[in-house]
Amino acid sequence: MKIERELMNELKDVLRGYIYDDNAEKLIFGDGTKTEPKYKIFIPKKDWDKIKKKYETKERDERGWTNKYIKLALSDLIDEYKIPPPFPKISLEEAKKSFIQLAHDPEMFSHLTKRHRQLKDERRIKKGKTYSLELIRRSKVYYRFSSKYPVSDKDGESYYIHQSEDGMKASNYFHQAIRLEVSSKNTVSPIEGWMNPKMRKRALQLFWRLTNTLGYVDTSKMNSALRTNYYIASQFRPSSAKCLYRLFDAKNVLDPSSGWGDRLASFLATPQTENYLGFDPNISLHEKYDEQVRLYGKALEPLYGIKKRVKIHKSGSEVFDYKNEKGKYDLVFTSPPYFDTEKYSEDEGQSWRLYKTSDAWLGDFLFRMLEKTWNCLKDGGVMAMNITNQNKGGKENNITDPMNDFISSLPGANWIGCLGMRISVRPSLMPQVPKDAVMIEPIWIWGKNTGEKTLEDFIIAKKKFLFGYTDKDKYELD
Hints:
36% of the residues lie in helices and 18% in strands. The chain is α/β, with parallel strands linked by helices. The chain folds into 2 domains: 5-84 and 187-229, no CATH class; 95-168 and 235-475, Vaccinia Virus protein VP39 (Rossmann fold). The termini are far apart.
C-alpha cells in the first residue's frame, strides 16, 4: 500500500494534539530547574472513533487491515517525542506500603487487648484485607494438564491459595526494569517490542482487535498491547510464598532459584523466618537483592526480635557444594526456571544456555538440584515445587510426573499433597474451565520423614488463622 505523505502529515498533526508533557507538575516546589519532558498520549474514545473513521483506508494492506496510516503515525510520533515504554514506575513509597501489606499478621497486634484485636480485625475484614493463611481456600479446581499425582480429590476439589496483590510492588520495585528485558524462546522482550518500530506497530494492532472494549487510547492501553503481544516474565506472588512459610512454620528457608526476589520479600515479611539461602546465576540481580535486604531486612525486628539472615549465591543451585548446609532447613521451596521458556540473561550459568533439551534439563539441572537440596532438609522438613507441564508444538511436555517420581525415590520421602495456586484464566482457555472451578498451578509438596501427615493435616493445624474461622478462641494469644 503506497503512503500518501500529505495525508500522513495531516494525521500526525492531529495526533500531536493528544501528546502532553507529564513532568510539568514537578516544577511546583522544585529547584527551579526545568526537567526533561516526559511525553505521554491520551485520546478520548469519541476522538479516537473520529480519527479511525476519517483516516482508516478503504484499501486493505497485505494483512487485510485498513489502519496502516494510524499505526504508522502513532509509531512515528512515539519515536519523535521519545515516549518511554508504557510500564508504570513503582515509587519507593508504593514499595514500602506493599511490604507493610504483605507483613500484616495477627501477631503484629499482640500488644493490643483482646477486644481491640477483635475490633481491628473486624475493620480489616470489612475492607476485604486478608492475612496470608486466610488466602487458603477450598473448591473445585481446574488444572489444564494431566498428572498421575493427585491435584484434587475424587470430587475435583482441592485446597488452593487465592490471589492477592500484597507484596507485588515490594519486590517488583527492585526488579521490574530487568524483568522487562527478559525475552522468551518465541518472542522478544517487552522493551525490545517497544523500541523496535516494526514490532511496536504489531503491538498497536491490539487497538483494533479490542474495538468494543478499548474505550480510549493512552499509555496504559499501550501497556496492555505489549503484554498481549510479547512475553513478560512473571512474578511469583509474594503472598503465596508467605502462605507456605506460615503453613509449614519455616524458620530456615532454602530457595534454589531466587528469581525476581518475590520469595525473598516474603521471607523478610514473615514473623518466624530467620535464615534464607538463595541462588541465582543472573549476576545483574544480586545488587537488587542487596537493596531489598537493606530496605526490608530489619523492618520486623522491633516487632518480633528476630534477626533476618540472607545469603544468595551467584551460581546455579544444581552445581553448589552444600557440605556445610546438610540437615539445616525446614523448607526447600522454589519455582524453577523452565529450560527454554525465559532467557533471563546471557550469563553462562543460566539453565537455558546449559541444558538444550528437556531430558538434559531434567537430568542435569532439576534432578541434581532436587537431590542436593533434599539433603539440606531436616527430618520433618518440607520440599515444595511450583512447576507445571508445558505445551510444546501442541503436545504436552510432562515434566511434573518425572520430577515427582524422582523426589519419591529420595531417602525418607513422603507425599504430602498438591496445593493449588490460583491463576488468571487466559481468554483462549475460558471455554475449558468449568464455571464452578478455579484455574490453578500446582505446588507439589513432599515431606522428609513426615510419615502419613497430609496437606490437610497441616492446614487444620492452622485453622485458627484460616478464612472464615469464627470460634471464640480466635483472638486468644497462643
